């Protein structure tokens, strides 16, 4: 097991020039462009691996704001369902899918070719077209002697997509860790009537009545055209990772966030261990040109990521929980060995803490997402073309007071069977980050604690998973017992149950939507499922992939030995638990 994960680490160190760039999310027949039978999928291949999930009748590729207006006008004049997608498409729910069953009644607008970036050094702002890659925005700011103070950890996103879904890094300081809270202006292209040419541009700035609606809009109001972000004078950061026993984790997470500007914590419950990120600004003259090249976001040898996936699948199939625990131990040891991807300088290996570098190289990483490519040897480890890693990602956003109780409940669940938690520690454990209160109506209504956790996802959605009941119970502990809010761009569908009541600005947002998109052209069955917050219709096996909470055995998989049972700690939970004694 250790050898397999050391291979994964070494495989991720392959030269970037040999990397295969991610595939485009929109793929069409004919010449591959426009109206020749297209399909949309997300970057993980979690949906639309074929044309059944999200067929698209027509795709527009604007290269200017005028082109965006023309595309929205086309949809508006024809009464077409319309959605926008970036050149990345890492959203887990199908928010970008326009619906319409691939008929002429839908249009997809790709911002992949709409990617300009302009820095105003005097005003300390950067204005980016909606499709501009986050990395391009960061690099342009740094080249002008400025820094973007907050952004997601993963750079493979567009500015428009990151803003509209509430993407974030980690900070309770200043304006906080969410990218949208650093927006000072943006433009929306929305449907209009014939008198206005069927579409219009709505420029919005901080203080405008509709600005809080546009900040996190989920693609429901129109197409974001341009975004202007506030910058700061260029600065450096100093990062040290501190491994600690997790016995006091529930009591010191808030103090950690208060002490360190860019703090986070990775909790590995099966290991009884928490990894504290001590991350603060450093003087500009501090020695160091460090780089955060996170191990999970580097290009990995395709053969290695396939091998690791095959190993985990074999362990799942044989119900070998001890094997999963060996994988988790090896994963954490390997990350510790290489400083989780920190480097003293680009191209160098990790040699010790602290690692000091400029903000533009320390906040965000994702070297596997950067084309061009010259040889099909390495790729992002989850690239669906190569059948590598495949996982669920759940993200729950807590009130700090409720988060402490959640930790204690998860510890109780862990202590009943510590090995059952190994599946999440194979990935990144439970990653804890911090986000400030936002003025966005669909942003966070209070200073909040965000928890991300990844876990094995079977290629077949009807296949049950090892420790299935444990991760269903953790999910229900978060969203149902402790009232966590779901991240809009992540999660299985059950996480969105009752979501409108959890975002206090929902009524104001809904009113803004009626004003900007009165015909509902930017709605779709897929986005309705997310923002509607209603449990989907229950069918056989619906609980296995998180489309429902089980209430009958058939919602699990009795044929595989999984039956609907109460939770072990949260007795109101209903989970799919394995029982060999009941197998027919």
Give your account of this protein's structure.
The protein has 584 residues and is of the alpha+beta class. The protein is built from 14 helices and 27 strands. Among the domains are: 21-110, Uridine Diphospho-n-acetylenolpyruvylglucosamine Reductase, domain 2 (2-Layer Sandwich); 117-234, Uridine Diphospho-n-acetylenolpyruvylglucosamine Reductase, domain 3; 534-582, no CATH class. Strands 20-14-16-15-23-24-22-25 form an eight-stranded antiparallel beta sheet. It has a five-stranded antiparallel beta sheet with strand order 7-8-12-10-11. Strands 1-2-3 form a three-stranded antiparallel beta sheet, with no helix packed on it. The longest helix has 17 residues, at 321-337. The protein is globular and about 70 Å long.
Topology:
Layout: H1 2-11, E1 26-28, E2 38-40, E3 55-56, E4 59-60, H2 65-78, E5 81-85, E6 106-110, E7 117-120, E8 125-129, H3 134-143, E9 146-147, H4 159-164, E10 183-191, E11 199-205, H5 211-215, E12 223-230, E13 232-233, E14 236-245, H6 249-259, E15 264-268, E16 273-282, E17 291-292, E18 300-301, H7 302-317, H8 321-337, E19 342-343, E20 355-358, H9 359-362, E21 378-379, E22 391-398, H10 400-416, H11 422-425, E23 430-435, E24 448-456, H12 468-481, E25 485-486, H13 506-516, H14 525-532, E26 562-566, E27 574-578
Parallel strand pairs: 4-6, 5-6
Antiparallel strand pairs: 1-2, 2-3, 7-8, 8-12, 9-13, 10-11, 10-12, 14-16, 14-20, 15-16, 15-23, 17-19, 18-21, 22-24, 22-25, 23-24, 26-27
Helix pairs in contact: 1-7, 1-8, 6-10, 10-12
